[in-house]
Structure formats: C-alpha cells, structure tokens
Amino acid sequence: MTETMSGAEMVIKALQDQGVEHIFGYPGGAVLPIYDAMFHQEKVKHVLVRHEQGAVHAAEGYARSSGKVGCVLVTSGPGATNAVTGLTDAMLDSIPLVCITGQVPTHLIGSDAFQECDTVGITRHCTKHNYLVRSVEDLPRILHEAFYVASNGRPGPVVVDIPKDVQFAMGKYDRPKDNQHKTYRPQVEGDIEKIRAAVKLMAGAKKPVFYTGGGVINAGTEASATLRELVRLRAPKPLPPYASLFV
C-alpha cells in the first residue's frame, strides 16, 4: 500500500519491512530526522555506541550471530569516515551490512560544507555497492535494493548516503515487488573446469594442507560436514591422534 511520508520515515519503514529489529549507531546533525522518526516507533530498536567504528563492528557481530543483515546509522563527514574500518572488515570477511549515512543537503554537496565528505568516493573500494540518494522518489527502491545486494551472492557491506533535504522531503513510499539491482547478477555456481583442476591438484598432492576460512562456517553445517569428508579422503589411514582437532 502506498503511503505519503518523509524520507526519514521511509528509512524506518523500509527497515521494518526488511524485518530489522536492531540498528547500531551514533547520532549527528545530518541524521537527526531519521533519529526523530525512529523514536516515534518501537519495532526497530537503536543500540547506542561510543564510536561509529564500534557501531559497524557491533553490526558485524550481530550479523554473524543472527544470520540477518547488520544495520548501521551514522552521520555525515567524520561519522561516515569513522565507519570505514568496519566496512573494510565486513568487506574482507563477507559480512552483510547496510550502513545508512547522513549527508549535507544536496545543494551543498561539493562546496566543502560543514561535516561534508565524499562518502561514496571514500567507501567505493570497501563496499559491494554504495548509493548517494538525490531524490526522495528513489529512496524506497534504493533502501530495499541495498538489502538485496548486501545479502545475495557473496555477502558484504552496502552504504546508502542520504542528504538531509531528502530526509525532510515528502514522498510516496511503496515497497518494491522486486528488490533486485538491475545490473547485479552474482555468480552463485562454481566453474566446473576450475573445480576439476582443483580436484586434480588435491589428488596429486603428497602432503595436502587444507586452509579453509569463515566461508565454510557461514555456509552452514552441511558445508562443514562435506569439508570433513574431503579431509578424511585425503588423510592417511589411520588418522593421527591430533587429527580430531582439525576435522
């Protein structure tokens, strides 16, 4: 159902529609409209941190333990730049995050306004994707799209940079039926030729070492069981006493 509301209210509504229960953040002038909208509802609970970097790390831990997309809310300028360390960590560790950042009003972008920085440019290399929202009409689509990009394919962080005037602007909110990004088509199936080459290398290895990471854990118990089976196939018979520590 289409509803008329402010951009700030759209942010909270989109979080609710995505099933978000907790968001980690630190207030600042460029996101006060969003905080005001948040305090007029009870579905999304705000977790106050002492530093924006801590907000992202907390959201990472929440995403790891809950299996949901972690959510962060920080202000413009130093708020956004403080979040970069956590965003980089999430990118390297494949943790799904949506980081909402405030921005100066659109007509001040590029004028060295108070607490302005090029958030999109700064975070381009440490996110899967990022957005600068210039129109309230685009805000609902972008917010839902951000959750899709963050959680599909190889998970990772997505930044949504929202100018203050867009937060105040009134518009129509309607949850998109299709959240997919029009150009984001993640590779979700393995390359059979590369898999065969890897199998050949493992089969011919005299002393194979399996160096596996969090991807196996994140993929679930079935992936861990499959890894154990593979290790046992290549392990000497009988297994050495210490093998149970690793398999």
Can you summarize this structure?
The chain has 247 residues and is of the alpha/beta class. The chain contains eleven helices and eight strands. The chain has two domains: 3-173, Rossmann fold; 192-245, no CATH class.
Q: SSE layout and pairings?
A:
Layout: E1 3-6, H1 7-17, E2 22-25, H2 32-38, E3 45-48, H3 52-66, E4 70-74, H4 78-82, H5 84-93, E5 97-103, H6 119-123, E6 129-132, H7 139-151, E7 157-163, H8 164-168, E8 170-173, H9 192-204, H10 214-218, H11 221-234
CATH superfamily of the largest domain: Thiamin diphosphate (ThDP)-binding fold, Pyr/PP domains
Q: What gap, in angstroms, lies between the N and C termini?
A: 51 Å
Return residue spans where pLDDT drops below 50 for at least 5 consecutive residues.
none
DSSP helix count? 11
The main β sheet shows up as:
6 strands, parallel
Order of helices and strands: EHEHEHEHHEHEHEHEHHH
Radius of gyration: 22 Å
Please count the beta strands (DSSP E, at least 2 residues each): 8
Can you characterise this structure?
- With 247 residues, this protein is α/β, with parallel strands linked by helices.
- The protein folds into 2 domains: 3-173, Thiamin diphosphate (ThDP)-binding fold, Pyr/PP domains (Rossmann fold, 3-Layer(aba) Sandwich); 192-245, no CATH class.
- Helix content is 42%, strand content 16%.
- It is built from 11 helices and 8 strands.
- Strands 3-2-4-5-7-6 form a 6-stranded parallel β-sheet, sandwiched between helices.
- α7 links the parallel β6 (129-132) and β7 (157-163).
- α1 (7-17) packs across α2, α1 (7-17) packs parallel to α7 and α3 packs parallel to α5.
- The longest helix is centred in the first third of the chain and has 15 residues, at 52-66.
- It is elongated, with a radius of gyration of 22 Å.
- The mean pLDDT is 91.
